[in-house]
Fold these 4 entries.
Entry 1:
Amino acid sequence: MSREIATGNTACALAVKAANVDFIAVYPITPQTTISEKLADYAAAGELTGKYLTVESEHSVMSAVAAAAATGARTFTATSSQGLLYMHEILHYAAGGRLPVVMVNVNRAVCAPWCLYADHQDSVSQRDTGWLQFYCASHQEIYDSIFLAYKVAEQMEIPVMINYDGFLLSHSMLPFETLEQEVIDSYLPARQPAWRLHPQWGGTFSNVAGAAEYAAYRHKLAQDTLEALPVIKAAIAEYEELTGRPQPGLVQAGSKGGQAGGTGRTGGEGQADSESQTGGESQAEVYLLSMGSMAAEMELAAAELTKQGIPAAALKLRIYRPFPAEELAALLPAGSTLIVLDRNLAYGHSGGALLMEARSALYNSGKNIKIAGSAVGIGGQDLPVSLLIEEIRRLLEVTKS
Amino acid sequence: MTKEVLQPLAKPVYGAGGPTGTWRSQRPVLDKEKCTGCLLCWIYCPEAVIAREDRAIDYEYCKGCGLCARECPVGAIAMIREGEEA
Amino acid sequence: MLELRIHGRGGQGVVTLAELLAKGAVKAGKEAQTLPFFGVERRGAAVKACVRIAEEPILLRSMSYQPGYIALMQENLLPYAKLEGFGQDGTEPVFIINGKELLDVAAEQWLVDAEKIARDQGLVFGGEAYINVPMLGAVARVMGLSLEYVEAAIREQWPGKKAEPNLAAAKAAYEKVEKVEMAEKAETVEKAEKGCGEE
């Protein structure tokens, strides 16, 4: 194991290189591009075990990796924003075809107007394609998620999309620990598909189906997507055991109330110091749910609110599809308040996608949880702790009225 | 009833990008004695900061790319480092 | 937590400076983060990046608005630093400036002639001096990061002989950067309105 400091996209590329991927096809798009560049560098240096294909568009990318996955290959691609939208048709194809592609989507706002910066509109609008969706809040989570994703995808034969925020994580540097190749190889042995597309097999794939047959395939996919939850948990547990590195759960309560220091020379300004930790989630009355890079900063917001007399705890959603409804409900004490901050907009509804998910997940929980939420950080609007607190305080007033 | 424009519209505006002259590390200086008025600099300038009438350079927005100096057929434009005298 | 915001221009190596500083800090056993702001990636346009160095894992994912340190790669970038914000509530940042004269701000200022140091070491390309490496040395000194870690980061970035002029430049700036006292306290900084535009 070695400790590195590099960009999020480098963390991603390092993990992909180590994951014994057979086939990679990528089309460049900001802010994903440096992943495709790094992987091309590795390919040119002969450091990749698999083949690297340059193609002419994202639609072709997804067609290529889905087809390669059908031949039994372990495949990877990465994209962002409009690139992901352009793949949309084949995303359904990959999931419906039960092809375990792993893709990184570096979250970026969608047009119009044109915008380069982070929000989750690109990935949440792919919610119903049948893909599993992971979200990351740190470079360590990016690195680890690659291996977890292959483990889960290949076991369930469902594709996985790993999401992390453009620039905020993709181009920033943070330290992370890499794994020895033997550890990765033992966690992720070669893919063993039950079936593979091959000329000698002589059959066809994804032929026309009648309603009954089609419905059976699709209901099975829906069911298996739900059954991926315990599989993800088991994959996380095995990873923890093998690496000795604690992993955040499907939805994770903040480990601490805050961190020493802040923005100044001597620390302190605008930040909670170590003595104001939340002191365990059981004391919290207000819970702050979010996903992506914002979820890391929400821990600081929770600590600061606690310091201001509002016992709060941050909840980081790591797995968005399948949605860990029971796990979320279990973290919330009866009568508590849940504030949901989304980095996407649910048009025609208030707030964003996560707010809808949370309401739906908790409706039958019998815990009488007050829920409010809103969309922030759209188009990469910067989210300093002070702004998060201001918005949370506003939403707390909403829950009281 | 007039409808509010909801579309994300934009029009080119002189200097909309701010005073981009601060980007410059070298500035073009025109020798009017040598200038023949052929207007190649005016045609080639990507920022349109050279006046057609008298080839006056708007240093508020000139980024110092040096294309005008390169294209001038009589060598009438010199690139001078900022902070140094022409 | 120590926080630095660097203001420079496209082509001056601001992102590399931030990354080398963070790498040096990690080599010193600390936690670090760089957060470059991308947008106008054009040569000469104003750019900025943040570096955070801490003892504990860093959870912030937003830009820095009240950094303890501000590095200016060029004196005429002060309006951008002002626009971005600093010095509220009496927490004036320490400035590290590539230049020869004090700026009109009521704050601690360290000056270094990074341009001259770079030229002395032959760190010149296309007539422009590579000032980011000497600025790295100067920033490390002011922020209290030992030179050995900076040197290790430089050796990793430029293996072999290429490291030598960079090491010499970083070391020279580390030694030469100087805190300059103001003769009289300048007026309090007002929020800059002119000189930045919409970039």
Note: The longest helix of chain A spans residues 211-243.
Entry 2:
Amino acid sequence: MASIDIDNVRKNYGAVPVLHGVDLTIKDGEFIVLVGPSGCGKSTLLRTVAGLEEVSSGEIRIGGARVNERHPKDRDIAMVFQSYALYPHMNVAENMSYSLRLRRAAKERIASAVSNAAGKLGLEPLLERRPKALSGGQRQRVAMGRAIVRQPKAFLFDEPLSNLDARLREQMRAEIKTLHRDLGATSIYVTHDQIEAMTLADRVVAMHGGIVQQVGSPLELYDRPANLFVASFIGSPAMNLLKGTYDASGAEAGIVLPDGTRIALSGPYALQSGTEVTLGIRPEHVVLSPIDGLPARVSLVEPTGFGIILHLSVHDLPLIAFTLDRTRLQSGPTTAIAFPPEHLHLFDGAGNRVVRAN
Amino acid sequence: MAIADALSTMPGTRRSLRDRVALRLEPYLYTAPALILIAAVMLVPLVLGLSYAFRDIQLLNPFSGGFVGLEHFRTLWGDANFFRALRNTLWWTGASVFLQFALGLILALLLDRPFAGRGLVQALVFLPWAVPTFLTGLNWAWMFNPVIGPLPHWLYALGILDAPNNILSDPSLAMWGPIAANVWWGVPFFAITLLAALQAIPRDLYEAAAIDGAGAFRRFSTITLPFLAPTIAITILLRTVWIANFADLIVVMTNGGPADRTQIVASYIFTQAFKALDFGYASAIAVVLLVLLMIYSMLIVLLRQTLLERG
């Protein structure tokens, strides 16, 4: 096991930059999830750590040692691919033992490592099978087994669950988490699925356009998104974002929406009055039918079983609210809403989070 | 079966003889058009050709045409020219297929890597395949001719030849002439098919193997070769049969000479049929070649089957 340091790593494909100076320090045994939309550079970053892509500049250290010039096989890492990348001409046991056989490990050590990994993953009855005789979930397990057998310094996962159906994905997600708890291995996990990011990660790295947008615990990203990208990317249904201007006049600071509606904030922010800002509020924080609220029209009601998603419009601004209250299914064409000040997020013109002045 | 359904839904009717015959014939009637077509265009000429092998057919003898049984095959068994042609065929086919395959594989592996101008190089590499074989044969015959061609002089300069002579007129070297032309002409076939197979191999596998610690040679032997094996088996089968039957280059370049040293079975058949005008004997040789190639094909198909099952 080892720490991984990514130091100002840049990557260009020809003239096209895909990583703009990424800095990231991963502690020994930490589970890091890189999350972002496709094309954000998360897979490229993972592949530079694996050594499958060369960095254009910057330094990558595994266990404190610079690995930029090392071949993938000399970095002592294991990788799980989205396509599993199992060797079709080898059976499960041969697939799992391939790296050890290439390193000419002792026969007994190989046998014990394979049976150990097979035991952890429930693969014992399948050891003689070839990959094509396995289901998707079983192949995924073999790919993980191949990584475990190595006992590498770090595990790299490249969207490992994307090819599985929803139920299997949930199950494997839990297994990966259990496995990480048992092995305590440093892991980097790439996904575009925010649920995987939230549930698996010790720390989430949200990426967009080749730039790290925010690094933090899952709840930190959810509760205090650093910018508009993280605010809108993390959470489903997504955070409501309303444009307005900051108004410090009066007893309480507030936001004035384009139609003149004023929404009260709790306490002053470090902003000039009249600054253009974006106000954010998560759908589950929108209070429905308060004593004195803004009038809102209900345009669509979506029951999810767990709760209800209400599509509203407030003075023609679209807004989404989420509630667990089933009586809302019968809500009439109009309702009222309120924005509790403690749940409001404020972003400045550049899209960065603004904190309270005190 | 429409009639069968109709009959079985009629309760209490006893089937008449005519109905039962119709029922039996029905599937054969449906397949008859295709079967008759196949028989007419494939089987009839084949059987006719085979029948010549058992008849005395000489174009210059109007009284020939009678049935002679196994007479031709007995003659063949004692025909030293035939056995020399058979040995030459093995040599010609083996060397041509091996060199075409080896060079084709190397070319395919080179073309599989991205480099600047790859599209143009690919197009150029595949060009010989488009050249008519007679032109290929003439061209190479001229190139081996020391009066107009450069090859003898180059080979002499490299010390491979003792004197800048035409290898096509040297009995011990003549076979290399058509083989060289054949390799030049046939490499693209292997390069195209192997390149297509190479590009179908998932790149992830190479990356996984690189991380697992496999060097270039191990990646080739554990990933590339097993993936290519079925394609290699089928292309070698096709090319072997093709080249064994392929007399064009030999007829154009050496006409079997000097001293029958480049006579292969296919060109021997050609000589017997169109020079000696003995169609009966030529057909008998052709039958033997057909049987040999069929045995060979069966072996390769079995090999490919086991390869596919293992993969």
Note: Chain B has a mean pLDDT of 86.
Entry 3:
Amino acid sequence: MQTIILFACLVSTYLMVIAKRMPALIMGFRYQSFFLFLVTLLMAIAERRIDLYSIAGLLLALKVVLIPGLLYRIVARIKANENLGLFLNTQLSLLCALGFTCLSWVFSARLLAPGNVLVTTTLTIAFFMVLAGIFLMIFRMTALAQIIGLLVMENGMFLLASTVSGGMPFFVEIAIFFDVFVSVLIMGFFVYRINKLFTHVDVNKLSRLKG
Amino acid sequence: MRTIALSLLELLLFIAISPFFSGLITKIKNNIRMRTGQSIFQPYYNLAKLFSKGEVVSDTASWIFKAAPFVVIASTLTAALIVPLFIVPGSMPRLGDFLALIFIFALGRFFLALAALDTGSSFGGMGSSREMFIASLVEPALLLVVFAVSLRYGSTDVAALSGMHTVTVSSLMAAGALFLVTIAETARIPIDNQETHLELTMVHEAMVLEYSGRSLAFIEMASSIKQMIWFLLIAGIVFPVASPGPAGIAHLAVWILWYMTRIVIIALAVAVLEISVAKMRLFRAADFLGFAFVLGIIAVVCAVLGI
């Protein structure tokens, strides 16, 4: 069951990589976070830990409901829903993502002792999510997409931590959640300001104003 | 002798119930849109009407135009013989395997594309070139699905599908890829739209635009049978069914009911997808089917890993 949900995470990350418009990207993020919530919930049920339950609850509240909702509002407000500013077209992005999956598979197979397929695949998917986040940050030109890239990386880190060490300490986790939420808020305002000042959110064009 | 009779019976069942699913999908879509819509049995009425009507054939058409509907229906029926509907695997004569299925469909498609070019109408040419573009993207994804399934079972026989009793990551991924392929193959919305004859968007409809009467009925019938075959394949992967156990009419009835319910579930999924997404630009089809391809690769890798 856990493996299936993890692969659903993987598929939703792929959906984000091929997304061409902002709402599709946010929807992909919402799915990804939801599947992550399910994984955490399953883990909490299996290990009977109260703190994991609360972390899962926070994950659901923040990353599935609040942050995507906020991003949708920003998109609707600055009307940036059309162009994502693809630096690499979707087919090439998909190929890159496949390459990343392969890379993280090789890496995690080297890192861990062979044998336990479940742990290796979890690690692979976690690494892949981090790489996909970096990819989204580098190859998508709008500021909003870069925020989402950061969030995807954070999701990957969360999964990584929970595989390798059975989750970070409770208070660290809570602190990270609020950090992420506040940073999304701040970056959202930034994007709003950028849009107001420059009438676009294309990061490439920001440097033209120098001098 | 008995197996041949059973196979023929199965084929007749295929022909009899396949238009029902087309009607069902249209009905579900209309209900979601808060419309009354046509009856579920409308495809049957359409077929009856078309069979009773005369045919108009262009003067410039060659024999290909006249032969194509027969090739299409024949290849589809052959495919229907390969895919087991009810009959327990092992009891049917081995006509061909999964790979044969793909190429039998390709034969029908090839003739339909030729026939569309034959009359020299510009819509036909557009339709067939688009159809070939989509087909070239569909085939790799489809082959990967076949590899994933047959790696798990150890045989490329289609009946092997009903021999898988558990659902794994590999089979789910394969089913996902097959679902996207089915959308493309049955001319459903993100790729093609069956309901419209708008010149800029139609693919399958553009190819059959010149047909009328009995030939059109054959082509329509072939596409609904083809659709049912795809649904059956997906259902075989996602909802594996054990062969009927000890006899008993009640048991058998439940079994048949569950068999049909599986296809209805797939049809429901297709209808909901059609309602909830918009038609894609033609060149976005490459992204759509590229995604199916990636799902297929993941399915194969998972099948090799055994998860």
Note: The mean pLDDT of chain A is 86.
Entry 4:
Amino acid sequence: MERQTETPLIVLLIDSKPERAKIVEDGLRGAAVVRQAPALHGAELLAVVERLQPDAIIIDCDSPDRDTIENLQLVARKNPKPIVMFVENGDGALAREAVRAGVSAYIVDGLSERRVLPVLEIAIERFRMFDALWKDLERSKRDLEARKVIERAKGLLMQKRGLSENDAYAAMRTMAMNQGKTIKDVADNILAVASLFDD
Amino acid sequence: MKPEISNLTIGFVPLTDAAPLVVAQEKGFFEKYGLHVCLSRENSWSQIRDKLAAGAIDAAHMLAPMAPASWLANAYAAEKFVTAVAFNLNGNAVTVSEKLYQEMVAADPDAMFERPTSARALKAVIAERLRKGRETVTVGAVFPFSSHNYALRYWLGAEGVNPDRDVRMVVAPPPFMVDQLDRGKVDMFCVGEPWNTLAEHRGLGRAIVRSADIWRHMPEKALGVRQRWAEDNPDTHIALVSSLLEALIWLDERANRMEAAYLLASERYVGLPAALLAPALVGKGALRTRRSIVEAEDFLIFHHYAANYPWRSHALWFLSQMARWGQIEAPANFLAIADGAYRPDIYRIAAARLGVAAPLCDAKTEGAPDRAWVLTEATAPIAMSASAFIDGGVFDPAAVGPYIEGFIRHNLRIDPSQVYAGA
């Protein structure tokens, strides 16, 4: 049964990563009213669903609470009946995308696809965006870490072997090429060996 | 026979009965059949279903009813799943909080000392609570389409308790269940091991009845794959079934069970101490009173009694319970679903290659006989045991409709005479 009045969609967002929840919430602003469930499980989570009566529930794929949400339609007939979005979608492409991005969605029985799809698409995009941001952050952390290690190893070579900065770096690069390793690995080795003798 | 694809990702949920996958991986049975497997730990059955449907995993540790359920219009699976090998019979238990246990003993002491323990005392507690205007009992189950759900409902229904009205049923994932019991959010639950053992170990509750008491041979987990995947990769599928069958035979040896407990204990798998995993594996299970009429070795069956055979009568029984409890909303052809979702033909090919005896019939009467027997309609005779239901019911797979109608408690949403009709 399609709703006649265009009241805003109420979306319940269940995600254990607060940073991501924020990104999803920002993305859905204007498209839906977003409510978040803090870390609740089982009966407590059901109570929140009962109170909020959301039109859609968007949840982290990895959340164990998904099984709790799944049971709503079978035990509590007065509650909204969530349907995994995937059924509505013939070729399953959206489902695959959602699973890959790590998002699952449940919608109230009978809510029109026209209204829910954009919300879900935004959610998928936002989950992905978070994933990309996270990976970028991890990569820059790693880069920074590598640079620190290389600097320390270089300093050590300069000090112990009396090499210039350029020569010390060139020596590490040669070692890396000969051993088929990254300069970071070589630097790690130099520091590890040095620590043996320092003690 | 070379498998079409050799690199596989298989999903599992951290439970004792993920053991066949863990053993096949750690003891090299997958490699023996040319399979390189990556085991992927998943947090929920919904996750297993969706990842499998979307192709993010090739195969999965699955609740046995999930395969036939995936063929129903309202089961929310985007793909149809099939199973050609079952992992185990039994292995679950119903645990009640210490407080509820005392209430039950006070309400009907005789009922509590009967073996197997019925829901009669619980019914008295519920009636008492409702009379006094208090909340009814909150019951935790793990997934709508699970043997746990049907076992629990069967046990309640056998005493005339309506699980959709007289108690409050909630679903929580197995690893949260003990915590929910501790915090008083559920009064009782039905869950697989090691979670009943953990509840007893922490002194929070008592396992009062095992799934094996409710149905002596309740099918539990199975290997699930997409129907289309099975069609595209028949030799890979047979290799997978064969390697798991070897793991299951290995697990059936009680001498190997402690080793299995240590393998499962790893952080990569269940991540609990082997001491908590061992009781269910060595056959004791979680039953504090230790007075069950079910012999200890029947607590968890990995191979004997033709435990790995995908009996179509099991699929039909699950469908009968789905219909009974209103999970089937439109007429469906139960026989077509059972034939499609359960594939004894594939099992027989794998069993023949291994030289393991396999049944030659696809279905059997469930719940009878009530004594040990020998299955002769097989490639070699197979010793079978009694398979009684707690209420003495008998399930004839050729008469599903009358069986469903015969229950005193049901919440049917389809006409039981229509179970062989429909799309």
Note: Residues 234-252 of chain B form the longest helix (19 residues).
